[in-house]
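Sample intake sheet
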Amino acid sequence: MHTVNIHEAKTKLSRLVDQAAKGEPFIIAKAGKPLVKVIPLDAPKTIQRLGFMEGEILVPEDFDRMGSAEIEQLFSGNR
């Protein structure tokens, strides 16, 4: 995916939009910082693979309480 600056995007907008509609998305940047991605409306959505690390990582039963005493001390100001 290529990146164009705002000035170039304004100058070549019709051509860039045609290319994006044909499946060649692009990014518009300002001062080198990416701002927006232009993709066709019918572009397929990316699928997030939830649980792909199942069985590879062990999460402790008390993970939601780990460090609670230290956190409570930090919030109460008692160090």
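Comment: The first helix runs from residue 6 to 11. Strands lie at 2-5, 26-30, 33-38.
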